[in-house]
Design goal:
Structural class: alpha+beta
GO molecular function: cysteine-type endopeptidase activity
Shape: globular
CATH topology of the largest domain: Rossmann fold
Protein name: Caspase-8-like
InterPro entries: Caspase-like_dom_sf, Caspase_cys_AS, Pept_C14_caspase, Pept_C14_p10, Pept_C14_p20, Pept_C14A, SH2, SH2_dom_sf
Family: Belongs to the peptidase C14A family.
Number of domains: 2
Pfam families: Peptidase_C14 (PF00656), SH2 (PF00017)
Length: about 400
């Protein structure tokens, strides 16, 4: 319904996720937009979801002291005093690269809106709590000890590319954080393209301890990386972190050859024999996705994980978080590590003890990284991470005391 010029006609209560959004919108034969509230968070997170054939777009809505704004690929940063004016500007194509999107209601059941004032912030509520069968409030069970494997591919020294100074800072902090969250952490250093591929296939279906020697694998002891003492085995979740040079849709081995992100994630696709069937699989990709540079201000200590296209699969139970959107560079500081990985670790350290869903944590990461500025050249770099989420339940990682 429209209320005093309200410009969004529908509201869906469920879980924010790219798969759920696409499945919802693909049911309708026309373009349109609606708001989605994430039922997995206490306060509720809001996204503007848009279908403009043949694409579906999901944008994060942020309400700050500066006003309402959108976050996402192809969005021109701009603040609006009210949600209504923001959506009107979006619909008219003035704040995004999507173009003009007609205002229609793509949801079969229109729901009633009301606006309430809460601590001087306007937010949206509704009385309709019916969910479709593909949207759920369930959480993944994480009862195994350890919770699962965290595998880090850490490529620093390349034959034909610059050394990735600062990457060890990222690897050590990832190891500390995921170890604290109950994961067994293993790192493979300086892998060529085919080594990466074989290592990932090994970890998808772990074998003998002796096989790890090929990949120069080390295990996090709590203070340093040491030789592993027993073969790895899967638990209730899986984390894979790839730190390397890269380009659009791919990451680079130390030999300069490329392994696509799709190949990386497809290695862990669910099969009847897979120990990870139905379990959450999170991939963190610290690598450039192109040569483009987003605007910012100069800083001499920054480097790029750059090296120019492959889609990411839409299989269930995946979350793929990439340091930057397509066609852009990812920033790494040689003294403190990369913007993206350091932000992920900070947010996991700060928020996990509160029981927050990992999708919400990555919204925080996007916000934090998008606000950073700095570059090697005047007038260059900002960065916007991207996530692809097909998790079918909430994923809540909590500190473990071993």
């Amino acid at each position: 319904m429209e209320r005093e010029g309200m410009l969004v006609q529908s509201y869906y209560y469920g879980r924010i996720g790219s798969e759920a959004t696409e499945r919802l919108l693909e049911r309708y034969g026309h373009d349109g937009s609606f708001l989605l509230r994430d039922s997995d968070t206490v306060q509720g997170a809001y996204c503007l979801c848009v279908r403009k054939a043949p694409f579906v777009h999901t944008y994060r809505l942020v309400n700050s002291t500066a006003g309402w704004s959108l976050q996402g690929s192809g969005i021109r940063l701009q603040n609006f005093r009210t949600l209504e004016t923001l959506i009107e500007s979006f619909r008219n194509g003035t704040v995004s690269d999507v173009g003009v999107v007609p205002l229609t209601d793509p949801v079969d059941k229109t729901v009633n809106w009301k606006f309430e004032s809460d601590n001087n912030k306007t937010h949206c509520t509704n009385s309709h709590t019916e969910r479709e069968d593909f949207l759920t409030d369930e959480a993944y069970e994480l009862n195994s000890q350890p919770v699962g494997l965290c595998v880090i591919i850490n490529n620093e020294n390349f034959k034909t590319k610059d050394q990735r100074e600062g990457t060890d800072k990222d690897a050590r902090r990832l190891a500390k954080v995921f170890s604290r969250l109950g994961f067994r952490v293993l790192m493979c250093k300086d892998q060529e393209r085919d080594q990466m591929d074989r290592a990932l296939k090994y970890f998808a279906s772990p074998g003998d301890l002796s096989q790890l020697q090929e990949f120069n694998a080390k295990e996090w002891s709590g203070s340093e990386f040491i030789d592993p003492q027993e073969p790895p085995k899967h638990g209730d979740a899986f984390i894979c972190c790839v730190l390397s040079h890269g380009s659009k849709g791919v990451v680079s081995g130390t030999d300069g050859k490329h392994l696509s992100i799709k190949e990386i994630t497809s290695t862990f696709k669910a099969t009847k024999e897979s120990a990870l069937n139905g379990k959450p699989k999170v991939f963190l990709i610290q690598a450039c996705q192109g040569h483009g540079v987003q605007k910012g201000v100069p800083s001499p200590d920054l480097q790029f994980d750059d090296s120019g296209s492959v889609s990411i699969p839409v299989d269930a139970d995946f979350l793929v978080a990439i340091a930057t959107v397509e066609d852009c560079a990812a920033v790494r500081d040689q003294y403190v590590g990369s913007w993206f990985i350091q932000s992920v670790c900070k947010q996991l350290e700060d928020v996990c003890s509160s029981g927050e869903d990992i999708s919400e944590i990555f919204y925080r990461v996007k916000n934090e990284v998008s606000l950073k500025e700095g570059s090697k050249t005047p007038g260059a770099v900002k960065q916007m991470p991207e996530t692809r989420d097909t998790l079918t339940k909430s994923l809540v990682l909590s500190p473990r005391h071993n």
